[in-house]
From TrEMBL:
Protein name: 2,6-dihydroxypyridine 3-monooxygenase substrate binding domain-containing protein
Domain 2,6-dihydroxypyridine 3-monooxygenase substrate binding, chain residue ranges per copy: 1-55
Record field: compositional bias (Basic and acidic residues): 141-151
Native organism: Coniosporium apollinis (strain CBS 100218) (Rock-inhabiting black yeast)
Stretch list, region Disordered: 131-151
Gene3D superfamilies linked: 3.30.9.60
Origin superkingdom: Eukaryota
Length: 151
């Protein structure tokens, strides 16, 4: 991503550094695809920024024979729009405590924390797909994914 000074950024374009013609194009896409409430938010943004959104999840939550465990963001990095990282960290910590205290077995802990991470990550993907390419019941400008991808 090149900013207004021609400097390239890999993961985050700082606030106010988006090239004006790119920002105008994004606002046009917003007007064509998102519900009015989101259009208003975007239109009123004076210093837009861009952050790369990634989906990461470990294939397992336990390594080295149980000597290393992953919980919270170390286990799965959720997309920001899902707003679930704090819930994930709290849930993982409580389940880990239950396992360490003998209230649940190790297998149950592994299964439950991985299931939570997978379900929430999938919901984040679904929400992202819907917001970028899906149908919005509140939008007056409904388009399908094929139309959006041609833009």
């Amino acid at each position: 991503m090149a900013d207004t000074d021609g400097v390239y950024h890999r993961t985050t374009l700082p606030p106010g550094k988006m090239q004006p013609k790119v920002w105008e194009r994004q606002k046009q896409i917003t007007r064509e695809t998102l519900p009015p409430q989101f259009v208003e938010l975007v239109e009123e943004t004076t210093k837009p920024l861009v952050q790369v959104i990634t989906d990461v999840i470990s294939p397992q939550n336990e390594f080295c024979g149980g000597k290393v465990v992953l919980i919270g963001d170390a286990l799965a990095g959720f997309r920001p729009h899902i707003a679930a990282s704090t819930s994930q960290a709290a849930s993982d910590a409580m389940k880990l405590a239950d396992m360490l205290e003998g209230k649940i077995g190790r297998e149950q802990w592994r299964e439950e924390s991985m299931r939570f991470a997978r379900v929430v990550q999938e919901r984040g993907l679904q929400m992202g797909e819907r917001s970028q390419f899906g149908r919005h019941p509140l939008s007056g400008h409904i388009r399908d994914r094929n139309t959006a991808s041609k833009m």
